[in-house]
Amino acid sequence: MSHTVNAVVVTEKNAPAAIEQIIIPDPAPGEVVVDVLTCGVCQTDQHFQQGEVGDNFPYLLGHEATGRVSQIGEGVTSVAVGDKVILNWRAVCGDCRACRKGEPKYCFDTHNASQKMTLTDGTELEAALGIGAFAEKTLVAAGQCTVIDDVPDSANAAVGLLGCGIMAGIGAVLNTAAVQRGESVAVIGVGGVGTAAVAGAKLAGATTIIAVDIDDRKLEQAQELGATDTINSQQTNPVEAIRERTGGFGADVVIDAVGRPETYKQAFYARDLAGRVVLVGVPDPSLTIELPLIDVFGRGGALKSSWYGDCLPSRDFPMLVDLCQQGRLDLEAFVTERTTLDRVQEAFDTMNRGDVLRTVVELTA
């Protein structure tokens, strides 16, 4: 039978995120129902609220989540009732041209649930990133569930952040840039994703890790998670400062975790010859950039974009959970604030003020 649960819905562009009752249908073949335990407050959810992702309102927000599987549909063998999972938005299909080439991290046909969750009047909801986890329960494709060890409940909030922002930052370093031991890494913009990139650089064995931002509070947090140097780009030219800290050459890898033309140009010119630039900050679709083509040629190296940290959830989530349990990755440090489902709009406001790395909504399932 279907379930009626509380969830955070935005009904029209720029409307407040508010609690509504929604209907979760029984899972169809290939689908599962998950009792949500935690869900991080990510800026992507606010982009949905503001109509910057699309106009398929109403949206069911939330996507950075842990949960416990409570129902499975016909044919589901990858998860079982009772499994603790991290939800992901890359449920690889196994059959598109990327998957057939052995590059499932670029899967072009990722799976979501075929059924729609609805408001109580039958209005269909569009789930943020195909997940919709600001809810007591949610319906997803089985492939969107990555089973993890049954970590203590106190760790749910931290490991759930791997579902989006933390994975994006760490993956940009480990997977996209493939940072090697002894290399230098600069990260421009150290919010949640950028600070995760700093932590990833530490995991990779980078010896010089430079955090760049305009907020001294964020720079301090980045230093706590592994940055060896910090630069306030309102006070000094970041390109010159990065070069000064890398023997005058520039960093081997520069991560742009902001996604603006200004920061991308800084990243481009702050890298060493044959260095790598990785764009992981999601740009506004209206933005453009202009670079001298001779500089693109003459500086060599690689200009890359990182999609979801180029991750494979089935491979990367359990690995990072293990590193957290070993004490090598402090995911708990990213959880600045814990809150409840009815305070998501307040959490957006706190995020916009730059007061947190991540706020996490905690539910009881």
Write up this protein.
The chain is α/β, with parallel strands linked by helices and 365 residues long. It has helices spanning 43-49, 97-100, 156-160, 165-176, 192-204, 216-224, 238-244, 261-270, 293-299, 313-325, 344-352; strands at 3-10, 18-24, 31-40, 59-60, 64-72, 84-87, 118-119, 126-127, 137-141, 145-147, 184-188, 208-213, 229-232, 251-256, 271-279, 302-305, 335-339, 358-362. The chain has eleven helices and 18 strands. The strands form three sheets. Strands 3, 5, 6, 9, 10, 17 and 18 form a seven-stranded mixed beta sheet that branches. Strands 13-12-11-14-15-16 form a six-stranded parallel beta sheet, sandwiched between helices. Helix 6 links the parallel strand 12 and strand 13. Helix 4 runs parallel beside helix 5 (192-204) and helix 7 (238-244) packs parallel to helix 8 (261-270). The longest helix has 13 residues, at 192-204. The chain starts with a strand and ends with a strand. The mean pLDDT is 96.
